[in-house]
């Protein structure tokens, strides 16, 4: 009887809890729906407040539950396309008098920062002010802030100016301890994606290429900062070598910043600029509110009956459907095909932000690009990364546009299998045995050592894919095969270097690629609309996602600085088999 009553009570409590949660959910949905129709009114004498200390991705994900506590989910990332559109609108908006820029440590690649920086430079042509403030600033943050009229650094703050650093992680020791052996098959001296599993440090070729592209990114940054702040490049290099910037006063003395001051002091300057009484508040509008007020709709943008399809592909390359952080060949092929068959679409821009992935999926998407080129211009646009499989997707385009600090190239192939026989036997006591109808029926395998013949077969397959990669790249870039292979071998290049050696046609951002597409299709400005694909997720699609498990966020919260290593080990599951990837997991800091 007691057991029965316990179950009854538990059921009642569960029903009450479910009803309560459902009630809160209905309130949240109602509030989100009602607020979606309300547009922010931008008052006269308003300042656009840009907080860029967030992840910057290709496109933003609208979050209808933002601000609703436990059901708020994610969606805090800034969309690069939406941000640039907002800056373009603000430039001509008479109610916007200037920008208050907060950019201490933006979470973005260097090519994305380049596009944001160019948009800020364009905004300044309106003669409106751009003031930047930071308690601390990384090099990435300062790169954006360096375009400002005034740069305020907190008196107790810090400006990082010591050069760029690329640090790679190696897991050979971990695999040795676990008794796991990596079976490696690769083509290309510089194809170093497998090095973390077989080495404890960088090989000489890998060190050479990292040093080359890192200095290319750094040199470009120094030139642009020097131009903006009216400084000498050699002076900026000396400041970094000597750790000259030890305190805010050093940043002021070297003219990296214009003022040492607190936030309220900068706001006093803004009030004077606006003619606002010191006792009154400044009319600020946030980026998200301004996007809403200006009705910035990037799914369909511009005028005219003709269209340019802008297809966004961001993340690791895989077969199947695209995810939030992955490029699915099925999804991208479908989008390219729709654009190819749509008579209203006169040109296609394929925007790629990827370090690569599945060789098969890359080739499937390459094929669809080739089909599209037969009927209309296809222009490739490189974001932070368009390397290996990411380059494969674009190499068949009519033209390729990249930022100077885009990471590209890495034309090479590797195959990776893990022999876990000793791990299962020695650590878990699990052994395997097998019966086969044919000698190689168990090929390939990870439960025991492969035979020399099987390993030779894997290597030949890897070499065959490399031959196809380089052959198609040579044809697409109109280069002799020997010339193409001389710059291939898995080597990584920046956009600037890629243009010099023929991998890239033009330096610039997404807007430049769109202009080139219009010119190639003989479309004049105002004669076409932009259609961004794939479409953004609808409200209820995002609703379902907001209740999903955000695995990455949980890993980050629980493990902190160890999170990247756990994420990388999980990623190994997708790396087995034939791969076209960047030769390392690297973040330039």
UniProtKB/TrEMBL annotation:
<dbReference type="Pfam" id="PF01343">
    <property type="entry name" value="Peptidase_S49"/>
</dbReference>
<dbReference type="GO" id="GO:0006465">
    <property type="term" value="P:signal peptide processing"/>
</dbReference>
<feature type="active site" description="Nucleophile">
    <location>
        <position position="388"/>
    </location>
</feature>
<dbReference type="GO" id="GO:0016020">
    <property type="term" value="C:membrane"/>
</dbReference>
<keyword id="KW-0645">Protease</keyword>
<dbReference type="InterPro" id="IPR047272">
    <property type="entry name" value="S49_SppA_C"/>
</dbReference>
<keyword id="KW-0378">Hydrolase</keyword>
<dbReference type="InterPro" id="IPR002142">
    <property type="entry name" value="Peptidase_S49"/>
</dbReference>
<dbReference type="InterPro" id="IPR004634">
    <property type="entry name" value="Pept_S49_pIV"/>
</dbReference>
<keyword id="KW-0720">Serine protease</keyword>
<protein>
    <submittedName>
        <fullName>Protease-4</fullName>
    </submittedName>
</protein>
<comment type="similarity">
    <text>Belongs to the peptidase S49 family.</text>
</comment>
<dbReference type="InterPro" id="IPR029045">
    <property type="entry name" value="ClpP/crotonase-like_dom_sf"/>
</dbReference>
<dbReference type="GO" id="GO:0008236">
    <property type="term" value="F:serine-type peptidase activity"/>
</dbReference>
<feature type="domain" description="Peptidase S49">
    <location>
        <begin position="373"/>
        <end position="524"/>
    </location>
</feature>
<dbReference type="InterPro" id="IPR004635">
    <property type="entry name" value="Pept_S49_SppA"/>
</dbReference>
<feature type="active site" description="Proton donor/acceptor">
    <location>
        <position position="191"/>
    </location>
</feature>
<dbReference type="InterPro" id="IPR047217">
    <property type="entry name" value="S49_SppA_67K_type_N"/>
</dbReference>
<keyword id="KW-0472">Membrane</keyword>
<feature type="domain" description="Peptidase S49">
    <location>
        <begin position="123"/>
        <end position="276"/>
    </location>
</feature>
């Amino acid at each position: 009887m007691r057991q029965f009553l316990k179950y009854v009570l538990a059921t009642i409590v569960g029903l009450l809890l479910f009803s309560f949660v459902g009630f809160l959910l209905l309130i949240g949905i109602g509030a989100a729906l009602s607020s979606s129709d309300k547009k922010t009114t931008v008052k006269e004498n308003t300042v656009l407040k840009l907080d860029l200390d967030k992840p910057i991705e290709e496109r933003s994900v609208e979050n209808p539950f933002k601000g609703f506590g436990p059901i708020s989910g994610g969606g805090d990332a800034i969309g690069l396309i939406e941000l640039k559109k907002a800056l373009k609108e603000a430039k001509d908006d008479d109610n916007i008098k200037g920008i208050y820029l907060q950019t201490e440590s933006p979470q973005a690649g260097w090519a994305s920062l380049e596009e944001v920086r160019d948009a800020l430079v364009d905004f300044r042509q309106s003669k409106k002010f751009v003031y930047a403030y930071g308690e601390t600033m990384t090099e990435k943050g300062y790169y954006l802030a360096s375009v400002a009229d005034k740069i305020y650094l907190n008196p107790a703050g810090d400006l990082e100016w010591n050069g760029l650093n690329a640090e790679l992680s190696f897991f050979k020791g971990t695999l040795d301890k676990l008794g796991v052996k990596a079976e490696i098959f690769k083509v290309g001296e510089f194809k170093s994606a497998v090095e973390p599993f077989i080495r404890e440090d960088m090989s000489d070729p890998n060190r050479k290429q990292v040093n080359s592209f890192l200095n290319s990114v750094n040199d470009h940054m120094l030139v642009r900062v020097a131009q903006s702040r009216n400084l000498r490049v050699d002076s900026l290099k000396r400041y970094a070598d000597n750790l000259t910037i030890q305190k805010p006063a050093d940043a002021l003395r070297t003219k990296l910043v214009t003022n040492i001051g607190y936030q309220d002091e900068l706001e006093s300057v803004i009030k004077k600029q606006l003619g606002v009484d010191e006792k009154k508040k400044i009319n600020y509008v946030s980026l998200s509110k301004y996007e809403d007020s200006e009705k910035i709709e990037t799914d369909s943008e511009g005028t005219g009956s003709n269209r340019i399809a802008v297809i966004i592909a961001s993340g690791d390359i895989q077969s199947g459907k695209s995810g939030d952080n992955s490029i699915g060949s099925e999804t991208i092929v479908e989008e390219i095909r729709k654009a190819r068959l749509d008579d209203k679409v006169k040109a296609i821009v394929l925007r790629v932000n990827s370090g690569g992935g599945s060789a098969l999926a890359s080739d499937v998407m390459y094929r669809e690009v080739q089909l599209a080129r037969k009927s209309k211009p296809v222009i490739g646009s490189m974001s932070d990364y368009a390397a290996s499989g990411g380059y494969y997707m674009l190499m068949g385009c009519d033209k390729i546009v990249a930022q100077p600090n885009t990471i590209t190239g890495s034309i090479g192939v590797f195959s990776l299998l893990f022999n876990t026989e000793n791990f299962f036997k020695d650590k878990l006591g699990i052994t395997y045995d097998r019966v086969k109808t044919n000698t190689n029926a168990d090929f390939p395998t990870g439960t025991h050592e492969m035979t020399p013949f099987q390993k030779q077969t894997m290597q030949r397959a890897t070499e065959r894919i490399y031959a196809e990669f380089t052959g198609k790249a040579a044809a697409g870039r109109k280069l002799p095969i020997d010339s193409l292979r001389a710059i291939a071998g898995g080597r990584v290049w920046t956009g600037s270097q890629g243009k010099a050696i023929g991998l890239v046609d033009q330096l610039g951002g997404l807007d430049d690629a769109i202009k080139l597409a219009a010119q190639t299709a003989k479309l004049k400005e105002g004669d076409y609309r932009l259609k961004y694909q794939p479409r953004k997720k609808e409200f209820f699609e995002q609703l379902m996602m907001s209740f999903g498990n955000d695995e990455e966020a949980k890993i980050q919260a629980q493990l902190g600085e160890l999170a990247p290593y756990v994420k990388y080990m999980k990623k190994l599951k997708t790396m087995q088999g034939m791969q076209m990837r960047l030769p390392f997991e690297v973040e330039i800091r």
